[in-house]
Amino acid sequence: MWAMNKLVNIVLVVDDGGFPFSNGDYGNSIDIEPYEHLLELAKMYSTVIPIDITAGYLDIDRISNPKIVKLLRENTDSLPVWNHGLTHSFKGLPTEFLFYDSPEKIPESIQQEHLELSQKIFEYLELGRPAVFVPPGNAWEAGVTDRIAKNLGFKAIAVRQFEKTPLKQWICALGKAYKQVWKKSEYIDTYWRLGVGVSSLKRRINKYDVWKSFKYIQPPNRLVNYAVNRSWKRPQAPHHFFAHIQNFCNTGSIKHWSNIIKKLVQSQKERRFEK
Q1: In Å, how far are 37, 78, 238, 271 from 57, measured between CA atoms?
Q2: What gap in Å lies between CA 122 and CA 83, rounded to an integer?
Q3: What is the number of domains present in the chain?
Q4: Reduced to 3 states, what is the DSSP secondary structure of residue 171?
Q5: In angstroms, rounded to a whole number, what is the distance separating the alpha carbons of residues 65 and 53?
Q6: Residues near 106 by Cβ (< 8 Å), separated by ≥ 6?
Q7: Listed residue (232, 228, 241) closest to 138, CA to CA
Q8: Residue among 142, 153, 126, 136 nearest 88 (CA)
Q9: 152 and 119 Cβ atoms separated by less than 8 Å
């Protein structure tokens, strides 16, 4: 199976793998095409594009398309599977391991069960046991979720340093830029990640999206950095940037994603040179 030492080739990770529809259980349908597009892009730039998958959508009784599992099995070097939870949601809310807008905590027993079952599903489908965990919505309970992940054999958790408040709320209260801020896990490696500025539901990428993504990948000045990351300080250099499987549905968007990935590869090389 895919080796951890290939992490060096990663610039982009794709969330929401396995979703049969744009919003998981409803919305525009998602077939095998975005996975084929990602494979094409990975080979084009000799890079690795992990797809973090919500295991419940690949369960044998709910599987949306067996061809997707076959494609992933046959291309683990280019499109390795990362764990994106079991259900992606809990109690009707869009996160599975921590609620952003509720003081209620998700029981440790539920977190344990969801992570354990998701790993069993991947193993049952001959996709191995993913080494990296990407909590849905980048929401995790420090000291609990990561401890459970370590005990289950995960090597790393891939998360944002911060979850931004909705733009309108931030404009009205500039002191409340973030819903949540995290430090590195004390239990497993932490792979910081940043978005490329493309909405999770956007299926057709255009030249404006490329221009905007470039500003997210390398803010040209402190003002743009403040607008993108809501801080005058730059965030820690990310291990990778992320997009969503929904963003790769349109064949005509591949040329634009090619430009974005080219920029990501260039940016990664520049960060290594700076070190």
Answers
A1: 20, 21, 28, 36
A2: 9
A3: 1
A4: helix
A5: 13
A6: 90, 96, 97, 98, 99, 141
A7: 241
A8: 136
A9: yes
CA–CA gap between residue 194 and residue 40 (Å, rounded): 23
For 93, the domain range is 4-274
On whether the pTM is more than 0.90, the answer is: yes
Q: Dihedrals φ, ψ of 151, to 5°?
A: -65, -25
- What are the two backbone dihedrals, phi and then psi, of residue 51, each rounded to the nearest 5 degrees? -115, 115
Tell me the residue type at 192: W
pLDDT of 117 strictly over 90: yes
Q: Per-residue pLDDT tens for 227-242?
A: 999 999 989 899 999 9
Find all residues with CB under 8 Å of 169, minimum gap 6, and list them: 176
Phi-psi region of 223 (alpha: psi -120 to 50; beta: other; left: phi over 0): alpha
Q: Are 84 and 50 in contact (CB under 8 A)?
A: no
Residue type, 227: A
What would the mean pLDDT of 128-154 be, rounded to a whole number? 98
